Amino acid sequence: MREFSSPTISVSSQFAPLGVDPQLQAVLSRYARGDASKVLAALQAAQDELGFLAPETVQVISDHLSVSAGEVYGVASFYAQFRFQKPGKHSVKVCQGTACHVRRSDLVLEAFERELGIRNGETTANGQYSLERVACFGCCALAPVVVVDEDTHARMRTTFVRKLLKQYED
Questions:
Q1: How far apart are CA 98 and CA 139, in angstroms?
Q2: Which of 33, 82, 75 is nearest to 54 (CA)?
Q3: Are 98 and 155 found together in one domain?
Q4: Of 78, 104, 120, which residue constitutes the final position of a domain?
Q5: How many domains does the chain have?
Q6: Domain boundaries, position 71
Q7: pTM of the model as a whole
Q8: What's the rounded Cα separation, in Å, for the pair 89 and 130?
């Protein structure tokens, strides 16, 4: 590693390239350069810090850990925990577990899609809402269940969707 110095400053060539998000630089500083075994940990830490994994984030992780961007993306896309779009201000999650499914949560999800003008896994153009279907919340006696941010809404019906969303408007 080459060091460049002047009487007042010292700049090392190990610094991340210009234009890399300082938050991402801080995350990656926890992992040794070229340590391919840290791909999953770096992805989790980056998403925790940034909220989602932008293509630039995947590329920077790839460069830092000396793993191809395709391989980093392959790891991230394998796990449902990773998001590739910026999440909305409010997260709307509709349970699709067995109890909720039997009680027509599919229709509730469709009602949210119509009302918000987005599909499962998308964010509204104004950045207010993200919509996601989930496997199970574990509160089957309350089916069908919708969770908005951290608030659980029980026995949801399609007719409740518009009113529920109004509660979260700014």
A1: 11
A2: 82
A3: yes
A4: 78
A5: 2
A6: 17-78
A7: 0.70
A8: 8
